[in-house]
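Work through this:
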Amino acid sequence: MVFKIDIGGSEYSVITRNLELNDINLKIYDFCDSHSSFGTELTILRNEYGFEDIKFDKKDVFVDLGANTGLLSFYVAKKFPFIQVNSYECDKILLKLLNFSIVDNSITNINLHSFGLGAETKIESFNVELSNSGGSSFFKQESENNIKINALMVDFETAMSVYDKIKYLKMDIEGAEFSIFRKLIDSKSNFFERVEYFCIEFHNINNYYESDREEIIHYLNSFKNLNVIMNK
């Protein structure tokens, strides 16, 4: 189903998708021209997040940084209804759609946080990619396929300080990961001692991508308690 949504006096075309993933039925919303959720759907079905091999216990904490349409958060929340899911998204348009989906999917174990993550706390210009909502970023340049909005970015360790322990942390934040890890590495942070599983997708946003990526992987591998999953 296609319909229009008004946010801040601007209209956006939105589509509804009904999915069945491993016997879990979900309803999500996205921009009409966006195919962002298809990649997440395929990654879930291929078990690339590793959920089929991880034992979640009651009250475990799952953190989704860069929730996008919420497909991953909703899947985890329904598959493991006894855990706490925390979803972070700074796109105010998607946030409204995420609230629709939470109601439609009758999900009660999700906390939705309306800000992005970075190396500092500030209001930043955020580029919403209408043709690929999952590609929206603080780093993309303005083009005919995206619009600019102001969004709240919160310092990563400050935001994560509310959790004593995180069972699974997924980070897909379109390039903001590099500034976060630069700060973590420079400060010799032991944050990841509190995390059991960490899934990250790296995004090539500068000429130092390969060396920065290798430095981050080396840092993550220094935590013996941490299981690292690389999402392509």
